[in-house]
């Protein structure tokens, strides 16, 4: 299994649906709000080393806080879990 496939597997175990196409793995469920239809995209390359070259495990470790934040409601504006915060929201710093 390649790194993109491994990352897709890790995200699936975390409950995040992914879409894979032409060297790109997208997680549309992690969109920041209206107008963002892609969410997070991870592009792979077969030409390492580049400025950023990482493993699926490292990429997932960086994405995990975003996944966890998306799964809990926002106390700052009252947005439900999985919904984007209201514009200008300053989340409660005690929930981090």
Short account of what is shown:
With 96 residues, the chain is of the alpha+beta class.
Overall shape: elongated
**SS elements, strand count:** 3
Distance between the termini: 34 Å
The share of residues in extended strands comes to: 5-15%
Structural class: alpha+beta
Order of helices and strands: HEEEH
Q: Treating each run of at least 4 consecutive H or I residues as one helix, how many helices?
A: 2
Regions with pLDDT < 50 over 5+ consecutive residues? none
Radius of gyration: 15 Å
Give the overall pLDDT as a whole number.
75
The largest beta-sheet arranges its strands as: 1-2-3
Largest sheet: 3 strands, antiparallel
**Which percent bin holds the helix content?**
25-40%
List keywords for this structure.
27% helix; 96 residues; elongated; 2 helices; alpha+beta; three-stranded antiparallel beta sheet; single chain
Describe what you observe in this structure.
It is a single chain. This protein has 96 residues and is α+β, with helices and mostly antiparallel strands. The longest helix has 15 residues. The chain has two helices and three strands. Strands 1-2-3 form a three-stranded antiparallel β-sheet, with no helix packed on it. The N and C termini lie far apart (34 Å).
Please give the structural blueprint.
Elements (H helix, E strand, L loop, with lengths): L2 H11 L5 E3 L2 E4 L12 E4 L12 H15 L26
Antiparallel strand pairs: 1-2, 2-3
């Amino acid at each position: 299994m390649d790194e993109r496939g491994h990352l897709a597997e890790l995200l699936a175990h975390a409950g995040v649906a992914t879409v894979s196409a032409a060297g790109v793995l997208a997680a549309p469920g992690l969109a920041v709000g209206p107008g963002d239809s892609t969410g997070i995209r991870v592009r792979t390359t077969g030409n390492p080393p580049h400025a950023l070259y990482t493993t699926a495990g490292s990429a997932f470790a960086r994405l995990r806080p975003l996944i966890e934040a998306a799964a809990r409601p926002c106390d700052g504006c009252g947005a439900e879990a999985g919904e984007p915060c209201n514009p200008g929201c300053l989340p409660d710093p005690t929930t981090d």
